Structures are given as structure tokens and as C-alpha cells.
């Protein structure tokens, strides 16, 4: 009986610690996945002529001209990633980046070769993390939560 009480008590403490740390974990995964997209966007802006060449000859983005696809990619990678880090817009930035990630995998055939396997694994990992954010939400450390808190204070029920 004493062992059972110890296990239940230890589990209760562990559970409270996990619940306490959950908002930090949510913030961490948002920042971690956004870092990959922000780094890619900054790389694209650092050498625009190279970026345009990649979109013309390497990436096979369907339905968009290469110039428009490049501009849209930079806007999504930098702008939407910032919204994700801030936790602004809830699940919408995660959804946009999730779809963008799928398009990146589809549009870059090198990822489907043995030479691109590592890059494909990265995209799969980012996709899984974005899916978790999409299904779970941005968490308590987010601008969405700050807006909700502010709204409830200004408009009590």
C-alpha cells in the first residue's frame, strides 16, 4: 500500500510539473519550427537573383510564375512565421505553413531522390510539428491568449 501511495504521489508531482511547463513547450516548438522557415526566407532575401534562378530552374511550383512564387515564398516564410512565433492568429499560421511545407516538398523533386532524403526528413519533421500546433493550438504564451485576456477584462459577461 505504501508503494502504491508513493507512485500515485510521484505521478501527481510529475503531472503538475508537466502542466506547468506545457506553455513553455508550446512556445519552444513554435519558435523551433518557425526558425527553419525564417532562415529559409532570409537566405532567399540575401541573394534575390539566385532565388529567382532557383524558382525558374529548380523548384517546380505549379500554377504560379517563378517570380510570384519567390515573392510569395518569402512573404510566407518571414511573415507567417513571425505570426506563428508570436502566437497571433492561432492555428491559421500553422495551417498556412503546413500547406506551404507540402508545396515545397512537391515542388522540389530532389527531395524525392536518395540525395535529398535528409531534406525530406526535415520537411516531414516540420510538417508533424506544424500539425501538432494546428491540432493543439498555440498555447498560453501567445498573443492570442493576451487578446482573449484583454477582451474578457474589457467585456465581462
TrEMBL record:
Coiled coil: none annotated. It is found in: Cell membrane. One of its GO terms (cellular component) is plasma membrane. Keywords: Cell membrane, Membrane, Transmembrane, Transmembrane helix. It is a multi-pass membrane protein. The keyword Cell membrane applies. It comes from the Bacteria. The keyword Transmembrane applies. InterPro entries: DoxX, DoxX-like_oxidoreductase. The chain crosses the membrane at residues 68-88, 95-112, 124-143. Its main location: membrane. PANTHER family: INNER MEMBRANE PROTEIN YPHA-RELATED (PTHR33452:SF1), OXIDOREDUCTASE CATD-RELATED (PTHR33452). Belongs to the DoxX family. This is DoxX family protein.
Amino acid at each position: 500500500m505504501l508503494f502504491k501511495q508513493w507512485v500515485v504521489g510521484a505521478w501527481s508531482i510529475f503531472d503538475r510539473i508537466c502542466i506547468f511547463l506545457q506553455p513553455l513547450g508550446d512556445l519552444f516548438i513554435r519558435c523551433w519550427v518557425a526558425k527553419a522557415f525564417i532562415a529559409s526566407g532570409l537566405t532567399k532575401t540575401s541573394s534575390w537573383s539566385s532565388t529567382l534562378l532557383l524558382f525558374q530552374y529548380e523548384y517546380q511550383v505549379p500554377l504560379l510564375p517563378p517570380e510570384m512564387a519567390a515573392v510569395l515564398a518569402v512573404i510566407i516564410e518571414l511573415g507567417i512565421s513571425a505570426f506563428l512565433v508570436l502566437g497571433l492568429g492561432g492555428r491559421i499560421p500553422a495551417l498556412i505553413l503546413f500547406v506551404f511545407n507540402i508545396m515545397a516538398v512537391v515542388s522540389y523533386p530532389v527531395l524525392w531522390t536518395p540525395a535529398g532524403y535528409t531534406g525530406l526528413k526535415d520537411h516531414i519533421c516540420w510538417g508533424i510539428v506544424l500539425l501538432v500546433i494546428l491540432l493543439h493550438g498555440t498555447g498560453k504564451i501567445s498573443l492570442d491568449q493576451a487578446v482573449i485576456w484583454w477582451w474578457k477584462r474589457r467585456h465581462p459577461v
